[in-house]
Write a structure and sequence with these properties.
about 0% strand; about 425 residues; mainly alpha; 21 helices
Length: about 425
């Protein structure tokens, strides 16, 4: 029955049925076939969304939309340009840094590539960068969104296992910063190798003006992350603070939108939020079905039956997660795979906190890889580039992601040092 369930999900997704409906229909078929009571469906459907930590997701997504509409993103990019514009490959570097800043608010890779890539991709192409390279850089930069805290994927993971969201955020901070810094080194190397243009020297007065203009935008991640890590408020409360802050700064300080613009901003945000929440709801039904048909035990026995070597098992789990990330939405994958994989990794001595970061990095890399690769697909569309060429441009950054993944998997201090310190 477990095999039939997995195959049905993959078939429904492959023929174009939205992932939320693919999960729900497959679960319903299994429930009916096995004779389980149908009352489980509405119970789990609403139970999948009835969680205080999950409230952070719609608020962080809304704050990202308000940032974009209020002009905060443009000012973050301007500040990055003021200090990094004289480096080789300045625009790609600015894209990477701005994506990291935006990620520290929205927690979403797709939102990051849309918000930051929408500004920097046309700028890179206009300055003479190949369209496929612009798509590759912007798309790759966006995947730090679910890694750098606050992370929507980690909120889903932590709420499912009743783990400390703040500890998960701390655990993901070093991997997220590491990826960002090495992305910059890759961009500089590529710029020198291919003689890509740079913005030129920025005067001291222009730097000061950029910082003054962008001060309130730069303070947003400081307030949000500082509040979370200092214990002043929970991640869910931080999400609400981020919405209020983005609204006040966007409307009254930067005057990026007016009250007339709010209905459009809110409606666009509501569609994105509803999509994510529906996926979480239906994936909760599937997670229950997976548990009652005893699929976790069968998968665990199969994996542990192959080898008892922890190094090889962790490698096999990473390969499975990479493949799942290529095919399935990250938050749904987290809820489905937690009951299957967490018992295995804890038995082998890996911390659930570490595994949360490992799972997130894996699924983020899936956002860049075919056949779905939603972030790369979106970046290619914005750059009007061929998807195949964008894939090639993305590969060096993908390699950095794999290195980050291996460090998170096999070097416990990479994820656990900061939570232990705090």
């Amino acid at each position: 029955m477990g095999t039939l369930l997995i195959i049905s999900i993959l078939v429904f997704a492959a023929i174009g049925i939205p992932i939320a409906f693919s999960l729900g229909i497959s679960s319903l078929i299994t429930i009916i076939t096995e004779g389980y009571p149908l009352i489980v469906v509405p119970q789990k459907l609403f139970g999948g969304m009835d969680s205080f930590p999950l409230l952070a997701i719609p608020f962080f997504m809304l704050s990202g939309d308000l940032m974009n509409g209020g002009g905060l993103n443009k000012r973050i990019i301007r500040v990055a340009n003021a200090f990094l514009g004289n480096l080789p490959g300045s625009l790609p570097i600015i894209t990477i840094v701005a994506s990291a800043f935006f990620a520290a608010i929205s927690g979403s890779a797709v939102a990051t590539v849309a918000a930051i890539g929408g500004i920097t991709i046309p700028a890179m192409i206009k300055q003479g960068y190949p369209d496929h390279y612009a798509a590759g850089v912007a798309s790759s930069s966006s995947i730090v969104g679910p890694i750098i805290p606050p992370s929507i994927t980690l909120i889903v993971y932590g709420s499912s296992l009743q783990l400390s969201i703040s500890s998960l955020f701390l655990a993901s901070a070093i991997p997220g910063i590491f990826m960002t810094l090495v992305f910059i080194l890759v961009a500089v190397y590529q710029a020198k190798k291919n003689n890509y243009p740079k913005e030129g020297k920025i005067s001291f007065a222009e730097k000061i003006d950029a910082v003054k203009d962008g001060f309130w935008a730069l303070m947003m991640p400081v307030i949000i992350l500082g509040g979370i890590f200092s214990g002043k408020f929970t991640p869910t409360e931080a999400a609400v603070v981020s919405v209020v802050y983005a609204f006040i700064i966007g409307m009254f300080v930067y005057k990026g939108f007016t009250l007339r613009d709010l209905p459009k901003l809110l409606s666009e945000s509501a569609v994105s939020i509803a999509t994510i929440m529906l996926i979480l709801a239906t994936s909760k039904i599937l997670a229950w079905v997976i548990t009652v048909i005893n699929l976790p035990t069968m998968v665990a026995d199969a994996i542990l039956g192959l080898t008892s070597n922890a190094f090889l098992i962790f490698m096999l789990i990473n390969i499975i997660l990479l493949l799942v990330g290529c095919l399935m939405e990250a938050n749904a994958a987290v809820i489905i795979l937690i009951p299957i994989l967490v018992p295995i990794i804890t038995k082998l001595g890996m911390s659930p906190i570490t595994f949360g970061v490992v799972m997130t990095v894996n699924l983020c890399l899936g956002l860049l890889t075919p056949p779905v690769g939603i972030c790369l697909l979106l970046g290619s569309q914005m750059a009007k580039s061929k998807f195949e060429k964008a894939v090639i441009s993305m590969l060096p950054y993908f390699a950095v992601g794999v290195i980050t993944l291996l460090l998170a998997t096999y070097v416990p201090a990479f994820t656990l040092w900061l939570p232990g310190l705090m």
